[in-house]
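call fold(seq) -> tokens
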Amino acid sequence: MTDKRKPNETDREVGVVTRAKPKTKKPSMYRVLILNDDYTPMEFVVLILEHCFGKSREEATRIMLHVHNFGVGVCGVYPFDVAETKVAQVLDLARRSEHPLQCTMERED
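ret:
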């Protein structure tokens, strides 16, 4: 049997190309916390909660009272970058207003 192919032709294989879907996972979420102190006025904390976290007056007051009574309160839960920005905003506004208010974030389990 003679081979009738030209010398530079190659055999072609037929197959199915499959693409593996990349496995994405949800971003880690972080709680933004406000800490109680004896010097920051309650009304200022309410204003921070309204301005930085978009809370209503009633919800902001409820969170502020929780912080006052228990020493710490959750302002919201966000992805890392958003939580970090919120903490920076709170600390900046507190420093500009000469209040020692502390705000931090912790990873949610």
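The first strand starts at residue 29 and ends at 35.
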